[in-house]
Design goal:
- By secondary structure, the chain is α/β, with parallel strands linked by helices.
- It has a single domain, classed as Alpha-Beta Barrel (TIM Barrel).
- It contains 12 helices and 12 strands.
- Strands 1, 2, 3, 10 and 11 form a 5-stranded parallel beta sheet that branches. It has a 5-stranded mixed beta sheet with strand order 4-5-7-6-12, sandwiched between helices.
- Helix 5 runs parallel beside helix 6.
- The longest helix is centred in the middle third of the chain and has 19 residues.
- It is globular.
């Protein structure tokens, strides 16, 4: 079988249980070992298909599970930063954002002994309203960012942003390589594909068609969170909060479990049929001479 190349596989390493407790129920809870188990499951899948990927790791995960960071690095994968506490940029000011990124970057570099080049914002929270965050990303020492979803969405998105990897000029005049997430144009509207809940909900055939179309024009950016492979019940304290929350929030959280059992075989199929490489490899192939786009 001839694999289709020009793609990258990325993982946003975060503990789904503790983030759900905080963001959905306003309850602080410790990191759980579930993120370690699920990330190792992804590592085993990647090894089976001889694929190297990019892992954007939360600082708090690295702090609690440094051996996981070492295992990722020793496996030949790229390490990137996903923030420290999974705070969206619209929840922070510039100083707080810099501390989030700088602290996580230094910690992950100290644990792995390797330089970290890339960043991905929690919940793709680099938008026209938070574009100041691009300057913070540069100031924290990153060479590239992969946080912009070029769609018009309710929770995130930058309508009209190019779908191509590009060199941008930030509001303060810095230069940064931006790697937008993959989308597909359907009836004039950009639809996110190839990752997260979209990978979970869309039929496998649709995702493969999207990948085939995207890779004819640009690299496909596949992304996943470890918790999306989690099919085991969450701890009792999670369900206690779930039962206390309102109807809409409760059903929103329940929807996060739809089709989870399909994710692992879908990922396996993609890894079987496509060639992937770490995102830094694709970024380095990008022309350094290209004129920067002013945003």
């Amino acid at each position: 079988m001839i694999k289709i190349n020009n793609s990258t596989f990325t993982i946003d390493v975060e503990d789904g249980i503790s983030i759900a407790m905080r963001d959905a129920f306003s309850v602080q809870s410790p990191q759980t070992n579930r993120v370690v188990q699920l990330t190792k499951k992804i590592l085993c899948l990647l090894d089976r298909h001889d694929v190297k990927a990019t892992f954007f790791v939360l600082g708090v995960v690295a702090e609690n599970f440094p051996e996981l960071v070492k295992k990722i690095s020793e496996g030949g994968h790229e390490l990137g930063v996903h923030g420290y506490n999974h705070l969206q940029f619209f929840r922070m000011n510039r100083g707080e954002a810099f501390q989030e990124l700088d602290r996580a970057k230094k910690l992950i570099e100290d644990i792995s002994g390797k330089a970290v080049y890339g960043h991905r914002a929690p919940a793709f929270s680099i938008t026209p309203k938070t574009k100041w965050g691009l300057d913070v990303i540069v100031e924290a020492g990153f060479e590239y960012d992969s946080s912009i979803m070029p769609i018009h969405g309710k929770r995130y998105g930058w309508p009209g942003f190019t779908k191509d990897i590009c060199r941008i000029k930030t509001p303060a005049g810095h230069q940064l390589i931006e790697v937008p997430l993959s989308t597909l144009s359907i009836m004039g509207r950009e639809i996110p594909v190839c990752g997260g809940g979209y990978l979970r909900l869309f039929p496998e055939g649709f995702t493969r068609l999207a990948m085939k179309k995207i890779t004819k024009e640009r690299p496909a950016i596949v992304y996943i969170h470890p918790y999306e492979l989690d099919t085991e019940p969450y701890p009792d304290y999670y369900f206690e909060q779930l039962n206390r929350t309102g109807f809409l929030n409760r059903n929103k959280m329940k929807s996060m479990w739809v089709n989870r059992k399909s994710v692992y075989p879908k990922l396996s199929g993609l890894l079987e049929n496509y060639e992937f490489e770490p995102l830094i490899n694709i970024v380095q192939k990008h022309s350094a001479d290209e004129a920067a786009i002013k945003i």
